[in-house]
Structure formats: C-alpha cells, structure tokens
Amino acid sequence: MPLIHQLRKEQPLVHCITNIVVANFQANGLLAIGASPVMADAIEEAKDIAKVADCSILNIGTLKQQTVDAMILSGNSARAAGKPVVLDPVGAGATPFRKACVLQILDEVDVTLLRCNVGELAAIADIPWNAKGVDAGEGQADVEGIAKIVALKYACLVAVSGEIDIVTDGHSTLSITGGHPMMTNITGTGCLLSSVVGAFLSIGSERPLEAAAAALAFYKRAGEEAAKVSHGPGDFAMNFLNALYTLDRKTKTYLV
Amino acid sequence: MPLIHQLRKEQPLVHCITNIVVANFQANGLLAIGASPVMADAIEEAKDIAKVADCSILNIGTLKQQTVDAMILSGNSARAAGKPVVLDPVGAGATPFRKACVLQILDEVDVTLLRCNVGELAAIADIPWNAKGVDAGEGQADVEGIAKIVALKYACLVAVSGEIDIVTDGHSTLSITGGHPMMTNITGTGCLLSSVVGAFLSIGSERPLEAAAAALAFYKRAGEEAAKVSHGPGDFAMNFLNALYTLDRKTKTYLV
Amino acid sequence: MPLIHQLRKEQPLVHCITNIVVANFQANGLLAIGASPVMADAIEEAKDIAKVADCSILNIGTLKQQTVDAMILSGNSARAAGKPVVLDPVGAGATPFRKACVLQILDEVDVTLLRCNVGELAAIADIPWNAKGVDAGEGQADVEGIAKIVALKYACLVAVSGEIDIVTDGHSTLSITGGHPMMTNITGTGCLLSSVVGAFLSIGSERPLEAAAAALAFYKRAGEEAAKVSHGPGDFAMNFLNALYTLDRKTKTYLV
C-alpha cells in the first residue's frame, strides 16, 4: 500500500512544537493529509504528548529559550518511545541565538531527520552563505556534499528543500523534482513540509529514507496541483490544502 | 427577534484567551457572525478586558501556567461584572497538566458554560476514554448522563459537540442535529464554536440553555451551507466563514 | 519607477514583532506585495534581526511585558542602523496596560511612523473616546488636528486609518480615499497595513510622507479589487491577498 494510503488509514498523531506564524496552516495541512495534529509546547506537558504521539516536530520559527527546553524534553521523550523526531531549523543563520539553539538541539536530541532549506543547511555546516531572514538566500555550495556531511555528523537524515529536493542518510541520496515556485510565496510551506515528512516517517519507519522521499514527492505534487487552479497566493494556500486532501484519494467527492 | 439578528445589531465584545493555532480563525469567525473579538491574554490586562467585554472565552489549547492565572483573573472579573464565561477544555485528557488546569479553572471560576467534545467530557468526569491528542477519540459512554452530572457538579451549562450536539443544565437537555463531518477536518471549529456560544449567551442571557442551543444549531447550519460549495478542507474553511456571515442575513449582497 | 515596482524588485526584509492573531496573515500579505517577512520577537534575537532588516514593525496586539522590552531593543537597533520603525498601537485605549506600553515605546524609541485607527489615536492623545476593544469605536474629534499634535510631539509621521486615511508629519497632511468597508470585517487588515507601510518606507526613505501615502493608497485599491470578487469575509481575505500580489503587476499570470 502506498504510504499516503496507510497514513490516511492510521491517522498518526503528530506532535508539533511550532511557531505563531504557521501553527494554523500546519495543523490544517496535517489534517488535510489525514494525520491528527496536536500542538503543545508548554514545558509542563510537551514530553507527555511526545511520548504518546507517533512523531514529534520541533520548529524554531518564533523561538523562546523556554521553548528550547521543551523541545529537548519532547525530543528525548519521543526518541525514548521509539518515535521519529524532525527538526526544522527555521532561519538557523538569521541570528546567533537561532544557530546556538539548533546546535544545542542537535547535540542533545537524537534527531531522526533535519528538514531545512539550503541557507539553513549552510548555517548548520558553518558554510558562508547570504541567508535572508528565514528565506533560503543566495550562495554557491555543493548542497548534496554538505547535506551528507551533516547527516553523518549528527547520524540523521537530512532533507534539503529547493527547486530540487534532496534527502540523504550520508551515504545514499534521493532527489525529488517537481513542485512550483509559488510554494515559496506563502508562509509556512517549509514548516508544514517538515510535519508531513514526520507523519510519513511514522508510517514508513522501516525504510525512513524512502518514506521521507515519498513525503517530499507527494508535497511537490500537491503544489503543482494547487498552482494549476490558483490566481494568486491567497487562493494558492487554499488550493494547496485541498490538494493535500484530495491527492491520491480514490474518491474525490468531499461529501463523506 | 432571532438571537442572531440581535447579535448582529448589538455586536457584543467577545474577549478570548485562546491558543496560537486558532486565534486568527476564531477572531475572523466572531467578526463573521457580527461580534467584535478582542484577544488579550496578558496577565497585566486580561481582567480589565474581561470586565468591559460582553463575555469571556477561556481556551486551553496551547496553555502555559501563566495563562491559567490570567484565565482565572479574567473569568472572575467577567463573572463579577455579570458576564458569561465559556470554558473550552481543549484536549483535557491529553496530559495530566491540561486536566489539572481545567479542574483548577472549574474550581476557581464560576464558569457559565463548558463547551467540549466527548473525550474532554470524559476526562473531566474521570470516565475511562481513548482520547487522541485534542480530538474526541473513541469510547462508549452515556454522554447525556455524564454531561448532566458535570453540569450539576459545577453548576454550569455543559455543551458537548459531536455528530449530535447536546447542551444541558443538569436537568433539561436539548439535542441539535445537523452539521457536516468536514467540520472536524479543519482545525479550530470547536474553539470557534465556544466563542460563538459565548456571543449568543451574552445576547440571550435570560434563557441561557436556549441561547446555547441556538448557537449550536446556527453553527451546524453554517457547516452544512459551507460543505455544499466546498471541494476540500481549504475552501471549506473559507466557505464556512462566508456562511457564518451570510446565514440568516436579509441581504446577501456583500457590498454594504 | 513606482514604489511598488521598486519594492518587488528589492524585496525588503520586513521584521515584525507581532501578535498571535494576525502573524500568519501579516506574513502572507508581506510576501504577496513582494516583501520578505521575518517574525522574531524573542528578546534574545529581536535586536539582531532588526539591525539587518530593512524596517521593523512593532505591533502590540497580544502584548506581554517581555515583548515590550524586545520591541524597545529592536526599535532602537533598527533606528541606529538607519532603518524605519513603524508602531501599531493595537487597542491602545482598551486597557491601562496597553496605553502605558505604547507611551513607553514612543518615549524610548525614535518611531518613524505611528499607524493607528482613530480610537487608538485618541488614547495616545488623551482625548475622550468610546473605543471598543481593538476596534476604532465612536466619538467626535478633529482627527487631522490631533494627528498633527501627536506627530509633532513624537517627531514622527502619523497615519490614521478609516473611511478616509490620512498621514501627516505635523505640517503637511495627505488624505487617501477609497477602500471598502469589508476591510474592517476581517481581522488583521490594520496590522498588515502597518507592515506594508513599513515596507514602502524602507524603499521610499527620501520622501517618507509620500511613501506612506503610496502604501495607504495601494492598500485601499487592493481592498476594492478584492471586494469586487468576494461573497463574504472568508473569500475576501483570500482575494485581498491575491490583489496585493497582482495589483500593478505587468503580468497577471500566476505561473512564473
């Protein structure tokens, strides 16, 4: 069975510690693919949620110090329970604070997969790069080479989003083409993608590299579908959620 | 005059202490029905807002300890001013922290109405239940019986959402059918509903049980209207806001 | 070259410290006009972001005391780097806490432009006014006269939104007509406008009064365009983002 069908059947519980900008879009996107989102970032409860959830997503978009502590507790709680943990190092190169938090999380949590853009990857790998806020920015780099080094250093999968996505375990690398430039014209597509990858990992834990690639490919196809019927970023966001819901469904009717 | 007409005329000020996931949807939904939302959760000001608002909504979706304190101050401030207070115990059964916070609020604030799903009700009533994150989950229970017990214990109305909604004061119970399954496929429909019930309560304070039932029925009808013209969860959310705005309006034209 | 064309070419980095209700809409609106948003409110990093951003937006919508501190650090960091700072005093008259925070920011930061509604202006100028939560409310006042006094007192531009927008430097005043009443029926149009004004100021820094007026006029036109094709507040919000993206673009096709 394709992973997306299995995901819709099992409806994995996806725990997100995320930012105030994309929390709504991320929850709606997870619901659209068929997962069950739970957003809980309080230090008093994050690790309890992580323990029972099927995967945990750590997103540093609007980070506070106390959230870093909750992330580390959650990440370790999820891993202790054998669940995958995805780290989204939003804007890792934007400030020293962000970079330090990302490196601390990578040091203290056995992260399963790092999902980033090339600017964030460069920051983590200490490669010079012109990042721009939380966007990828510009520079020249051997993306696959750097991703492999980071993957080996932290013993995790590394997925780098861009015109062509790649995902690597440090040895093998899969490339995924497709998608649409408009995916970068709305906020939160990267953040939601990290959650979607987490949901796929929770279903396809036996072959995580392939599960991550399947998530990236599914996501790019949803972007293509949405772009076909959109007139601007406003309806693109809406059509993208629709596409995440309808793509590869046997029945396309919305009346269940 | 139907309550919705009176509500649109009086435009009650609805104070919400809510979570980062649904704050935008909740504010837009309140504007759509004709209410005036004000989201203020800082402990320095929440009770001042609650005092002048027409009702206060306490939602524990992404709770922190300091927010619990703000909720208790606000709730008591609203009640001292004779305004209704609605508690939405989001995911009350998901963690010990959430359950403890909910019970603390119910103990320290004279809550007017508790709006929950069956999983949250079970947690509050200490009934075994397979909740799943913040979703209702699965189990067998005499929902009406438990709702009545909780209503009597805390001397409040209890509204339980589901395929059939019920609302009870512990003695009488009203049932509301309708709605659409897609209402559970977007995030925040429960949270927004709690605010809508609060807005109706502020208008129909003489007969609160009936006012709450009117809110629940109005909301289910909006869901049905939205589903008729939607192709997925993306446009359902949009059409749902439209339906909250247009339902039972004399003029359907958007140009005012 | 019209400012909007220059803005789309230069894609200014707009730093926002904002509230949980509108963060998503604000980020998407900034992306739609062609700017690059970065939302960062942690005290550990806000001033670092402000230093490299092209402008900073301080929005007190869901304020905490620690956020005020971050705002003051950020505002001073931005001004030291020669970048404009826009203050949005959301609901300044709603509580003593909000008003005190606004006055503190105005005292400690060399704000470039204050973007408010008439109720918020009245609060800042200590004029009696019936504000209603975060909405403009009702009253009688010489708006232009008060705006000029505030502009001179704080040596900043003051833009007041309403059926007719005005912007003044205390000496000259520009008025902008147009827009659509539905712009007040969704949450966040004022907050997003403040960010859009900031983006225009960062491009048109030589003539800030005119740049602000250009932003206000562009925004009102987008509202008109959106209203033409909308059926309610749900699709108005979507169409408004589309209009911010497509307005004054040479090519209207969405496939880039």
Automatic annotation (TrEMBL), chains A, B, C:
<keyword id="KW-0479">Metal-binding</keyword>
<dbReference type="GO" id="GO:0004417">
    <property type="term" value="F:hydroxyethylthiazole kinase activity"/>
</dbReference>
<feature type="binding site">
    <location>
        <position position="161"/>
    </location>
    <ligand>
        <name>ATP</name>
    </ligand>
</feature>
<keyword id="KW-0808">Transferase</keyword>
<feature type="binding site">
    <location>
        <position position="188"/>
    </location>
    <ligand>
        <name>substrate</name>
    </ligand>
</feature>
<keyword id="KW-0067">ATP-binding</keyword>
<keyword id="KW-0547">Nucleotide-binding</keyword>
<feature type="binding site">
    <location>
        <position position="39"/>
    </location>
    <ligand>
        <name>substrate</name>
    </ligand>
</feature>
<comment type="similarity">
    <text>Belongs to the Thz kinase family.</text>
</comment>
<dbReference type="GO" id="GO:0009229">
    <property type="term" value="P:thiamine diphosphate biosynthetic process"/>
</dbReference>
<comment type="pathway">
    <text>Cofactor biosynthesis; thiamine diphosphate biosynthesis; 4-methyl-5-(2-phosphoethyl)-thiazole from 5-(2-hydroxyethyl)-4-methylthiazole: step 1/1.</text>
</comment>
<dbReference type="InterPro" id="IPR029056">
    <property type="entry name" value="Ribokinase-like"/>
</dbReference>
<dbReference type="GO" id="GO:0005524">
    <property type="term" value="F:ATP binding"/>
</dbReference>
<keyword id="KW-0784">Thiamine biosynthesis</keyword>
<dbReference type="GO" id="GO:0000287">
    <property type="term" value="F:magnesium ion binding"/>
</dbReference>
<feature type="binding site">
    <location>
        <position position="115"/>
    </location>
    <ligand>
        <name>ATP</name>
    </ligand>
</feature>
<dbReference type="GO" id="GO:0009228">
    <property type="term" value="P:thiamine biosynthetic process"/>
</dbReference>
<dbReference type="Pfam" id="PF02110">
    <property type="entry name" value="HK"/>
</dbReference>
<dbReference type="InterPro" id="IPR000417">
    <property type="entry name" value="Hyethyz_kinase"/>
</dbReference>
<comment type="function">
    <text>Catalyzes the phosphorylation of the hydroxyl group of 4-methyl-5-beta-hydroxyethylthiazole (THZ).</text>
</comment>
<protein>
    <recommendedName>
        <fullName>Hydroxyethylthiazole kinase</fullName>
        <ecNumber>2.7.1.50</ecNumber>
    </recommendedName>
</protein>
<keyword id="KW-0418">Kinase</keyword>
<keyword id="KW-0460">Magnesium</keyword>
